[in-house]
Amino acid sequence: MDACENTIERRNHELTNLTLRRFFVNSWPNMANFTPVDPNDARELLQFMRRFYEVDHIHFIEEVASGAIEKMLDDESKGRIWWIQEGEDRIGYVAITFCFSLEFGGPSAVVDELYLEESHRGRGIGFEALRFVERFCRLRGILALHLEVDRGNLHAQALYRKAGYQDRNNYLLTKWLSDESNVD
Best label site of 52, 69, 104, 167, fewest CB within 10 Å? Predict the structure, then answer.
């Protein structure tokens, strides 16, 4: 890449960041606001993750979760994590990861985790969090947003369907490639 292309690339990146900052400052005056998780928040995020995994019956390995948080916060090309807040109170978090899909024609993202404290569920905040990440993704040129939901979590399925997510009648199959993450 020559100097001119580097300058254009840097300018496009700066304009995108400026647009995102303007959008996010004024876009959510309703129930919740969304602030990026900072590396200094890692310990608190781990506690939220522990509660989420307990509710969703996911085996929680703190070392694995801690390493994943660190990698994601150190490299924005992997994804983003935001606090879901009411005022100054953190009531949950939402995380998206980035990928590329031939099937969907380009950049896509996954709502990797969406968690709200139980006392804040059923009030539309989860729906608002989905709208927030959808807008963020659209501004980044992401063409499709995916998510995974437990087959037994009917409440979450209803939320996702209400937000326009469709069951594609596929299975998400997983094969662990690392012994440290392979848990029963």
Answer: 167
